[in-house]
Every structure is written in C-alpha cells, then in structure tokens.
Specification:
Radius of gyration: 19 Å
Strand content: 15-25%
Distance between the termini: 33 Å
Helix content: 40-55%
Number of helices: 9
Shape: globular
Number of domains: 1
Strand order of the largest sheet: 3-2-1-4-5-7-6
Oligomer: single chain
Structural class: alpha/beta
Number of strands: 7
Order of helices and strands: HEHEHEEHEHHEHHHE
CATH topology: Rossmann fold
CATH architecture: 3-Layer(aba) Sandwich
Largest sheet: 7 strands, mixed
CATH class: Alpha Beta
Length: 282
C-alpha cells in the first residue's frame, strides 16, 4: 500500500470514528460556523432547478442551506466519505423537512458522477484534510459544468485559531502528541492563501476570489468548550484519554492560562476563529 493510499484509509477511518461526536456537538459547532456556510452558499448561487454537490459534508449543515434554495426541482447531492456522517445529515434533513437531497458516500478524489454533471460544488473545511487535494480539485472540476463554481473553506493560521491550536500545542509540549507533519493533510495545511491559489491553478480552475471570514465560538464556560472539543476531535480525545489524571490537570491548567483572555468576568467564553474562503470557476 502506498503512503497516499494509507493516508486515505486512515482519513476515512478517522471520520467514521469522529461521526458520533459530531452528532453530539453539531448544533454548537454550526452556531459559530454559520457565517461560513452562508458565504459558501452565496458563492455558488443556488437557483431552483440546479444541481449542487457538497463534498466532505459532515453533518450537512452547509449543503442543506443550499438545498432549500434549489427547491422545488433542483437537487443537492450531499456526500461524505463517512457513512456515520451521512446518517447525521439524513437525520438533520428530516428534521428540517428538506427532501430534495441525494445522500452518497463519496471519496472526493474519485467522484462517482458523470463529467459536467453539477452546477456548483461546496466543500467546507475538507480539501486540506484530503490525501491528494489537487486530485480532488481536478475531480471537482471534471464534474462541474463549464462555468460552474466551486466554493470552499480552509482554516487560516494557527495563531488565528487558538481554540484549536492551543490544545494541540500543549499536548506536543508535553510529549503526548506528535507535532504536525507539514507534508501531510491537516487542519492548517492550507493556511497560506498562496497554497490555495496554486492548487486551484494546478487543477485548472479560474480563481474568482479568496477572502477571510472571522468567526466566534461562544460557550457558557471553558469546561463547555473543552467538552465540545473532545466531541469534535478524535485525535485530541485519544491523546487526552492516554494521559494520567495528573497530566490531564496539567494540560487543562496550561490551556486555561493561554485562553484566559477570552473568558469574561461571568465565565462565558468567546474564542476567535478565522477561515479562508475561496470561489473559482471551472
């Protein structure tokens, strides 16, 4: 098995393990992520009768916003590599009463759709986590109709996203987690906008824009934020589980100190986040 194949298998297995936690914290996560979903949907401009594909959809919150705008005769193809994630998305669609959705288990590097089949593609925080994102973008371009739009988000720099980078950095400091390999997929692998532009050009897209969206994650307390982090990140949860009780206390003390500036006098937490958003034409 090649290194890339091993990465693909590892990534697929990771997201299957992650699905239950995402189901638990989906609403909390989407409350902060809503501005990104709105930007992406506006960029692909869903109109009644069109056909939109969402890749790496997770719980499907972004695509389901588009689905409502495609009705009555348009279709959203909501896809993810994880069947567990698709189950969450199916439940969410049923809860919202959205019926113009096809749910498909799809690896974005081999999209099981005909060429020039969809009018737009959405992907929120997916490409930077793929084993071969340029291949995924080429596949995205293949299934898009000429002139169709891909709109996606990837995380900005670690220092702009302390809500995620601080826990990992402290675990690395403690020797409880390996530092990220810059040559492998990861949350911040596309934090440089030049990487985004180069990948789009290599895949044959015409870049329309790269922008940034600032978010705020709000929680009643740091404990509530920490619980959500453990739900959403398998890597974090497994690293913390392997610590001794004393090490867990040390970790939380260090994290709480680093994030103290974002805690109000009443204990509420407002953690800043920043993401790149991009749109390009096939």
């Amino acid at each position: 098995m090649s290194d890339a194949d091993a990465q693909r298998r590892e990534i697929a297995e990771y997201w299957e393990r992650a699905a239950p936690g995402w189901g638990t914290s989906r609403a909390t996560f989407q409350a902060g992520a809503e501005p990104v979903s709105q930007w992406l949907v506006e960029a692909v401009d869903p109109q009644p009768g069109l056909r939109i594909l969402e890749l790496a959809a997770g719980p499907g919150d972004t695509g389901l916003l588009a689905a409502e705008l495609l009705a009555p005769h348009g279709t959203l193809i909501l896809s993810d590599v994880s069947e567990g994630m698709l189950e969450i998305a199916r439940a969410r669609a049923k809860e919202l009463g959205v019926s113009n959705v096809e749910f498909r288990q799809i690896d974005a590097e081999w999209i099981d759709l005909p060429t020039a089949n969809v009018d737009g593609v959405l992907c929120r925080w997916g490409y930077m986590l793929m084993a071969d994102p340029v291949t995924a973008l080429r596949e995205t371009r293949r299934v898009l109709k000429p002139g169709g739009t891909v709109a996606f988000a990837v995380w900005a720099a670690p220092e702009d996203n302390v809500w995620a980078s601080v826990p990992n950095a402290e675990l690395v400091r403690m020797g409880a987690m390996e530092p990220p390999d810059p040559g492998r997929p990861g949350m911040f692998a596309w934090s440089d906008p030049a990487v985004i532009a180069d990948a789009l050009e290599e895949a044959g897209f015409v870049l329309a824009q790269i922008d940034q969206v600032d978010l705020t994650w709000r929680f009643p307390s740091l404990d509530d934020w920490w619980d959500a982090q453990l739900d959403l990140s398998v890597r974090l949860r497994e690293a913390v589980t392997a610590l001794t009780p004393a090490q867990r206390d040390e970790l939380r003390d260090a994290i709480d100190e680093k994030l103290a500036a974002f805690v109000s006098d009443e204990g509420g937490v407002a953690l800043p986040a920043r993401t790149h958003v991009a749109a390009a034409s096939a």
